[in-house]
Design goal:
alpha+beta; Arc Repressor Mutant, subunit A; 3-stranded antiparallel sheet; elongated
Length: about 100
C-alpha cells in the first residue's frame, strides 16, 4: 500500500477507534490490530499529530500509581472521518469502473 495513503488511513482508523469512547495507546492498538497492522512506534506519532492538529484531545490519569494518557475525538476529528468516508465513496466508484473495464 502506498505510504501516504496508508498514513491517512491509519489516522482515520485511530480517530474511528476513539470516536465513541476515549481510549489509551495499548487499547487502541488492540482494537485496531484485527483490521490493520499497527505498532506502538506507529501509533504514538499519529496520536501526537492528531492532538497537534486539533482532531483529538488528550488527558492524563493516574491509575495504580502510573500515568495513562487517554485520547478522545474532537469535532474537527469527526469532520475528518466524514470527509474520508466521502473520499472513499468516490474512490470506490473509480475502483468499480476499473474492475469492470479491465475485466478483473
Amino acid at each position: 500500500m502506498d505510504a501516504q495513503l496508508k498514513r491517512g488511513l491509519l489516522d482515520v482508523c485511530v480517530l474511528a477507534c476513539i470516536s465513541n469512547k476515549e481510549s489509551y495507546g495499548y487499547k487502541i492498538i488492540h482494537d485496531i490490530s484485527p483490521y490493520i497492522e499497527m505498532s506502538e512506534a506507529t501509533l504514538y506519532p499519529i496520536l501526537r499529530r492528531l492532538v497537534e492538529k486539533g482532531e483529538a484531545n488528550s488527558r492524563t490519569v493516574e491509575i495504580d500509581g502510573r500515568l495513562r494518557k487517554y485520547y478522545s475525538i474532537t469535532y474537527k476529528g469527526q469532520q475528518h472521518i466524514n470527509e474520508f468516508i466521502e473520499q472513499i465513496r468516490e474512490f470506490n466508484q473509480a475502483y468499480q469502473y476499473i474492475l469492470k473495464s479491465y475485466g478483473g
